[in-house]
Design brief:
- The structure is a single chain.
- The relative contact order is 0.20.
- This protein has a 6-stranded mixed sheet with strand order 6-10-5-9-7-8, with helices on both faces.
- It has helices at about 40-50, 60-70, 100-105, 110-115, 145-155, 175-190, 200-210, 235-240, 255-265, 270-285, 325-330; strands spanning about 10-15, 30-35, 55, 75-80, 80-90, 120-125, 165-170, 190-195, 220-225, 290-295, 300-305, 305, 320.
- The two termini are about 35 Å apart.
- By secondary structure, the chain is an alpha+beta fold.
- It folds into 2 domains: about 10-80 and about 300-330, 3-Layer(aba) Sandwich (D-Maltodextrin-Binding Protein, domain 2); about 80-295, Dipeptide-binding Protein, Domain 3 (Dipeptide-binding Protein, domain 3, Roll).
- β7, α6 (about 175-190) and β8 (about 190-195) form a beta-alpha-beta unit.
- About 35% of the residues lie in helices and about 20% in strands.
- It is globular and about 75 Å long.
Length: about 325
């Protein structure tokens, strides 16, 4: 999202050789973050040259093959703590009905979505906890793609045939939203009105969602979020979407969810906290509080002579090191 905030052309980090954790690092004397080139140029430099760029984060799935075929770089795929879902506006007409919400989930062909939109670089998700996180219930499976059951539930809930589903998205997830709109049309047999929010209108739209002072003009908003903590997804992911104080909550608080979150806030036993996390994710799934889609992988292009360790939630370089063949060492750096 554009911020228009001034940025230094370069940010330089110098290693602290006196840090107590010698086992972890640092293993590099100097790291330079470059803000003076755009992402496309950076990808060109890491794939086609040496000596300018060693690591490029947030590589798109469309560019993954280019990195893999590069003479100078390799691709690192990370099972990241991030999730893409359809935020359901439970204040909208018909969206309070769990049958409608389940119908929306049953309408989605997640395997095809991951194949077509993410080119395989994503994992289907049963609810909101990434499937590789410790709070993801072992016995919880993603909603199957079942168009017949989806139509039955939608009809049973009384959805009018002339009532279009209002789907919204930012430009960042437009391709995914268009794919999702096709799934809804094909499986449910209803029209879908897709609104793509222009970049310049994203901030006012976010303000409306977070402040909850005005009616929201969508039924489902395609939304991407992440867990910076990487330790307990309900604290950063579930809380923001469903808790009474959550920034992205679009609907009335759910009493059972409030109770589970309240208990998790004061729980100090790690095992019991994990079980509460599983209960939270199972409740979210059973109530179909969102349209559960997938967890995209984080893709990073790395110079062949750089040993890079990826992390699920943050970008860290403490364990990163370069070999004797790296350009900086060949040149006597």
């Amino acid at each position: 999202m554009p911020t228009n905030l001034p940025r230094s052309d370069r940010v330089i980090l110098e290693a602290n050789p006196d840090h107590w954790n010698k086992e972890r690092g640092p293993r590099l004397e100097r790291v330079v973050f470059r803000n003076d080139i755009d992402h496309a140029e950076a990808l060109d430099l890491v794939c086609d040259t040496e000596g300018e760029i060693d690591i490029v984060t947030e590589v798109s799935p469309a560019d993954a093959a280019r990195v893999e075929n590069s003479e100078h770089a390799y691709l690192v795929s990370i099972d990241a703590m991030r999730v893409v879902s359809g935020l359901i506006n439970r204040n909208a007409e018909f969206m309070v009905d769990v049958r409608v919400r389940k119908a929306l989930n049953l309408a989605v062909d997640r395997d095809r979505l991951i194949s077509d939109v993410f080119l395989g670089y994503a994992h289907p998700v049963a609810a909101m906890a990434p499937p590789y996180s410790w709070e993801s219930p072992d016995d919880l499976e993603p909603y199957p793609h079942d168009a017949g059951e989806a139509r039955r539930l939608l009809s049973e809930a009384g959805w009018p045939r002339d009532r279009a589903l209002r789907l919204a998205a930012t430009t960042e997830v437009e391709a995914l939203a268009r794919h999702l709109a096709d799934d809804f049309r094909d499986a449910l047999g209803i029209e879908v009105d897709l609104t793509v929010i222009p970049d310049e209108d994203v901030r006012p739209a976010q303000k409306t969602l977070v402040e909850k002072n005005l009616p929201l003009n969508f039924d489902v908003l395609v939304h991407a979020w992440f867990d910076l903590a990487a330790g307990y997804p309900p604290a950063v992911i579930h809380r923001e979407y469903y808790f009474s104080g959550g920034a992205f909550r679009a609907g009335p608080p759910v009493p059972e969810f409030e109770d589970l979150m309240g208990r998790s806030v004061v729980e100090t036993d790690a095992q019991k906290l994990g079980e509460l996390g599983k209960e939270i994710d199972r409740l979210v799934h059973d109530e179909a509080l969102s349209v559960f889609l997938c967890c995209p992988q984080s893709l990073v292009a790395v110079n062949n002579h750089v040993d890079f360790t990826g992390h699920a939630a943050t970008f860290e370089l403490a364990e990163t090191e370069v070999s004797a063949e790296h350009w900086s060492r060949r040149n006597g750096g």
